[in-house]
Amino acid sequence: MVAELTYKIAKCCMPQEGDAITGYFKEDGTITVHHAECNAVQGFRSERLLAVAWDEVRATQTPADSIALPPEFAELDETDYFILKHHQEFGMDYSIVVAETLRIPLEEMHQRHRKLRNLGGLKRVEGRIIHYRKNIVKGKWIKHRNHTYYELTPEGRTWIQAFENQQTTNK
Q1: 115 vs 58, which has greater pLDDT?
Q2: Residues paired with residue 23 on neighbouring β-strands, in sequence order
Q3: Where are the beta strands (DSSP E) in 5-137?
Q4: Where in 5-147 does DSSP place strands (E)?
Q5: pTM score, whole prediction
Q6: Cα–Cα dist 19/23, whole Å
Q7: Which CATH number is 71-170's, of 3.30.70.20, 3.30.70.580, 1.10.10.10, 3.40.47.10?
């Protein structure tokens, strides 16, 4: 008799369907699915690393297996999803650019960025040299100015995935 494998999505890198992935076979028999380029994988014992495919992972996932979402998730709406998605696609950015891109009034954008930060979906980026808006200007670095930049957190990635799962389920 062959036992059914149990897959869990790694919380450190939160791979999303379509990403290149690798599995790590744990002592308890579960396979933790990591993004293929996850830094944590570098420290794992190579004999425990497995080639896995999304079809295998999807086949064993049930609603009970999904990541538990905090109660704050219920406070988010579709506009919050688009803001989080913007940060996922373009990287760190500041309110005025996100507001202009998504056509949201600036004051509302400030409120939403503040809300998403307070809930843990975004974090403020401290002053430093940063890579200029991912996917806009390749290889360019700029000095962080007096703008308040925001960046997506692992929780924010989880919320994006949950929104997208809800949309798929509701279709």
Answers
A1: 115
A2: 33, 50
A3: 6-9, 21-25, 30-35, 49-50, 93-94, 122-125, 129-131
A4: 6-9, 21-25, 30-35, 49-50, 93-94, 122-125, 129-131, 141-143
A5: 0.55
A6: 13
A7: 1.10.10.10
